[in-house]
C-alpha cells in the first residue's frame, strides 16, 4: 500500500465563521417595586465589568412580575423594571441602540406564585447579552518563516548565484527592468528562498496545485531582484536559467509561476515554458555559459534521457548535470518545477474539524512530491477534492491562536468519499516543528 500524508492547516484567509454567543443573567426586585436593590446593582456591576463590549452585539431585557395585583398594572410594572435595568446599563457605557426591551407582566412565571419564595423568583428582569464570536487570527506561519538568502550582482554582467540547498540561477546581463520600463543600472540585490523539503513547503503555506489540479513538484523557489529598493523584472524576451537542486525528476517537468491569492497561498500556472531539451541524433549536449555567452558540449552518446543541462563547465559537472532539471523562466517571483500528475481513481475526502480556527487543508504524499489543498463547500464542510484512492495517510491539523499552538494528527486510509474527524489539542512550537519534519 502506498503512503501519503494528509495535512489540515489552520490558517488565515478562510471565510468568517462568526456565530452569536449568549450570556444570561437575572436580577430580582422587591415587592411592587421597580427600583434596583443594592444586591441587584452589585450583581450588575460585576457582570458589566467582565463584559467584552467590543464583541457585544445586543442586550435583551425581559421584565416580569409575580401574580399579585391587576394583570394590566403588572404589565406596566414589568416594563418599568426593564427600563430601570436599561438605564443602569446605559450609564455603564452600553449603547441604548443595542438594547431591546420586552415585558411580560405576570404571564411567564418561573416559579409557583403560591409562596413568597416563588413570588420573589418571578419579580425579575432577565438579561441576555448576545456576543459575536471572537474572530480568531491564525499566526502559525509567523512562527515558521524561512530565512531568505541574499546575493549581489551587476546589471551589465551575467549574474550567477547558488543557493544553500543547491539551486543555481543564471540571469543574463542587461536583462532586468525597473517598473518604469527603464533598465536597471549598477548593483543588483537578489533575494532567494528554496523549498525542496515538504516540511518547508507546508510551513510556508505552499501547495502544488494549478487551478485545483494536482501537480508533482521538483522544488519551489522564490526569487526577487531589486535596484536601489525598486523591484525588478526580466525584460520582454529575456530568460533566466534555473538549475534545480532536486535530482532524477521526471522528464516532463515545466516552469510554473506562482500567483499569491488573498488567503496568502500561492496558486501555480504555466505559460507553456517547458523544460529545455537539447538533443541531436540521439546525442545529449550540455548547454553552459562561458564569459557570458551560451555554449554547448557533448556529454555522452547513447539513448537520450530527454533532460536538459545548463551551466556545466567541467567534465565532472557535465556528467553530474545529466540527472539535473533545468528550467527557463521569463519571470521572477514564485517559481515551481512541476508537472501535472495523472490520477486514475479519484475521490473526495471530508474533514470534520473545528471551524472556529479557520482551518485549511493540505494533503502531502510520501511517494509523490505533491501537496494538495482543499476548500469549504456549501454545507460548511472542509473538502479535499479529486484525490487518489487507496492511500495510507496521516491527517494533521495545526494553528496558532493567541500565542497557543494547536495540533492534531491521525493515521487514515483514503476511501471513497470518506469523512475523518480531528480534535485539536494544545502543543509546543518545538513539538509541532518535529511533526512537520516527519513529512520529509
From TrEMBL:
Q: Which UniProt keywords apply?
A: Cell outer membrane, Membrane, Signal
Q: Which residues form a coiled coil?
A: none
Its primary localisation, in coarse terms, equals membrane
Keyword Membrane in the entry? The reply is yes
Residue ranges annotated for the OmpA-like domain, each copy included? 16-133
Gene Ontology cellular component terms for the protein in this record: cell outer membrane
Location(s), subcellular: Cell outer membrane
Q: Which InterPro entries match?
A: Bact_OuterMem_StrucFunc, OMP_bac, OmpA-like, OmpA-like_sf
Per its UniProt entry, which superkingdom is the organism in? Bacteria
- Tell me which positions the record assigns to the signal sequence: 1-20
The record's section on SUPFAM superfamilies has: OmpA-like
Which Pfam family name is an example for this entry?
OmpA
Q: Kindly provide the name given to this protein in its UniProt entry.
A: OmpA family protein
Q: Which organism is it from?
A: Flavobacterium rivulicola
Organism lineage: Bacteria, Pseudomonadati, Bacteroidota, Flavobacteriia, Flavobacteriales
Amino acid at each position: 500500500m502506498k503512503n501519503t500524508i494528509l495535512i489540515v492547516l489552520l490558517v488565515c484567509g478562510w471565510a468568517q465563521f462568526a456565530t452569536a454567543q449568549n450570556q444570561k443573567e437575572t436580577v430580582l426586585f422587591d415587592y411592587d417595586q421597580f427600583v434596583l436593590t443594592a444586591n441587584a446593582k452589585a450583581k450588575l456591576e460585576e457582570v458589566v465589568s467582565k463584559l467584552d463590549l467590543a464583541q457585544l452585539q445586543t442586550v435583551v431585557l425581559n421584565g416580569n412580575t409575580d401574580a399579585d395585583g391587576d394583570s394590566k398594572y403588572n404589565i406596566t410594572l414589568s416594563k418599568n423594571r426593564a427600563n430601570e435595568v436599561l438605564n443602569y446599563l446605559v450609564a455603564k457605557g452600553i449603547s441604548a441602540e443595542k438594547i431591546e426591551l420586552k415585558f411580560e407582566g405576570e404571564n411567564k412565571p418561573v416559579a409557583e406564585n403560591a409562596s413568597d419564595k416563588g413570588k420573589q423568583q418571578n419579580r425579575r428582569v432577565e438579561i441576555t447579552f448576545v456576543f459575536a464570536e471572537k474572530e480568531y487570527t491564525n499566526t502559525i506561519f509567523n512562527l515558521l518563516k524561512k530565512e531568505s538568502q541574499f546575493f549581489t550582482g551587476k546589471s551589465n554582467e551575467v549574474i550567477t548565484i547558488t543557493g544553500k540547498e543547491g539551486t543555481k540561477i543564471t540571469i543574463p546581463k542587461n536583462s532586468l527592468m525597473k517598473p518604469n520600463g527603464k533598465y536597471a543600472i549598477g548593483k543588483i540585490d537578489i533575494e532567494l528562498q528554496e523549498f525542496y523539503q515538504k516540511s518547508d513547503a507546508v510551513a510556508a503555506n505552499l501547495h502544488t496545485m494549478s487551478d485545483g489540479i494536482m501537480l508533482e513538484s521538483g522544488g519551489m523557489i522564490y526569487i526577487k531582484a531589486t535596484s536601489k529598493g525598486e523591484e525588478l523584472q526580466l525584460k520582454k524576451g529575456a530568460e533566466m536559467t534555473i538549475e534545480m537542486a532536486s535530482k532524477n525528476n521526471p522528464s516532463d517537468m515545466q516552469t510554473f509561476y506562482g500567483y499569491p491569492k488573498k488567503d496568502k497561498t500561492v496558486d501555480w500556472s504555466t505559460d507553456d515554458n517547458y523544460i529545455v531539451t537539447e538533443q541531436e541524433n540521439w546525442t545529449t549536449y550540455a548547454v553552459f555559459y562561458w564569459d557570458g555567452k551560451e555554449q554547448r558540449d557533448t556529454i555522452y552518446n547513447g539513448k537520450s534521457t530527454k533532460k536538459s543541462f545548463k551551466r556545466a563547465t567541467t567534465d565532472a559537472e557535465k556528467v553530474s548535470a545529466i540527472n539535473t532539471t533545468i528550467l527557463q523562466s521569463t519571470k521572477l517571483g514564485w517559481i515551481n518545477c512541476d508537472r501535472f500528475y495523472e490520477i486514475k481513481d479519484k475521490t473526495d475526502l471530508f474533514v470534520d474539524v473545528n471551524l472556529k480556527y479557520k482551518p485549511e487543508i493540505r494533503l502531502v504524499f510520501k511517494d509523490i512530491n505533491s501537496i494538495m489543498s482543499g476548500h469549504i463547500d456549501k454545507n460548511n464542510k472542509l473538502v479535499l477534492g479529486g484525490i487518489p484512492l487507496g492511500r495510507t495517510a496521516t491527517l494533521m491539523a495545526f494553528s496558532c491562536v493567541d500565542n497557543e499552538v494547536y495540533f492534531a494528527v491521525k493515521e487514515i486510509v483514503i476511501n471513497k468519499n470518506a469523512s475523518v474527524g480531528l480534535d485539536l489539542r494544545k502543543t509546543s512550537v518545538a513539538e509541532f516543528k518535529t511533526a512537520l519534519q516527519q513529512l520529509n
